[in-house]
Structure formats: structure tokens, C-alpha cells
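Title: Prediction job returns without error message
Component: structure pipeline
Severity: low
Priority: P3
Assignee: unassigned

Description:
Job completed but the reporter wants confirmation the result is attached to the right record. Sequence as submitted:
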Amino acid sequence: MITLHGRPLSNYYNKVKMVLLEKGIPFEEVFVGTGSSDEAVLMATPLGKIPFIRVDGVALCESQVICDYLEAAYPAPPLLPADPLAAAKVREISSFVDLHLELVARELYAQAFFGGQVSEATQARVREQLVKNIAGFKRLAKFSPYVAGSEFTQADAAAWCSLPLVGMASKAVLGEDLLLAAGVDWRAYIKLVGARESAVRVAADRKADMQPAKK
């Protein structure tokens, strides 16, 4: 049995969870907050990041690594094309969303979602980087109707979980949804993917996890 460790507020946790659900892999969830200093957690995820999984007593961290393991260990139904180059193109989009959109926008989250403040210098830097990176994303993304093409793939697990955060954070802090401003209609895409059973489950669990976080 695979155990998925983390919490449903995390978009990277939800990325892995969505892959597990799409593939119909049995798993159990274990709540672990981010930034844990517990030695048992750090042995599994050395930077205290979530998610991580345990498989037969072996821990594995980093969401994309986990997704690639799940694809190799449970090839059906496939979430990557059979052709190696086409599969690499899907991973390319996943990595671009994670590294060049979400992680950049993450610098705005303290103010956008948690009542903190982000300096004007940081706002200016993030805006400049996001504008550049979103233009790059548009060159890769297909949205036909899924982010990498006609089939749901790993890339959709990344995009569905992270694109709303990029849009909402930039709107809240920078006064403009930079995805929409660049012509990326993420809202229609989120609605499309959101009808899938995996997305319905992920969204419900995320909403439930948000309630204690607001108290």
C-alpha cells in the first residue's frame, strides 16, 4: 500500500494525489504539515517539503519524481504518451508550470492568501518574471482541450492544481491576473478538468482542509 504524506492545501500534494486517483492506485493519506522538524519526516523528505510517499517502507519525495515513479510502476492507464519524445514534452510542460510559474508566483502568496505583506521590490521583480515566463508557457501549452494536447496527462495534474494560484495571487497582489492578461484562459480549462472524478475529490478535500486553516 502506498501512503501519501502531506496535506490537501498543498498544490504539489494534490498533483500527486490526482495522479494516484486517475490511475486508480490504492493509497492512504497521512497528514504532515510543511516544514516539519520531526526527524522521521526529514529522513523521508530532507527539506521538510510535502508531499512524499512511502512504498514498502521506502520514502520518495519531490512531486514530479513521485509522478514518474507512479507512471513506471503502474503504467495503466497511461498519463504519459508511449513515445519517449512525446512523453518528454508532457514532462516539459509539468516542469515549466512547477518551476517557472508556480514557484515564481509563490513569492506573492504571503500577501495574497495569508494576510502578510510583500515588498514593492519583490512585487516588481515577480511581475517582470511572470510576464516573461507566462509568454514562454503560452508557446508550450496546447489547451486542445488539455494542456499538453487531446488527452489528460501528468501535465494536467500540475496545471490544474497550480494555474489558479498563479492567476489569483497575481490578481490579489499585483492588481492584474497575469495569466488572463496574457491570453491564457485558465478558468475555462480549470472548469473542464474540474469535472473529472479525481478533480472533484481533490477539490472537496482541499476545501475541507481550508476550514481549520482559516480559524
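Comment from assignee: result matches the submitted record. The chain has a mean pLDDT of 96.
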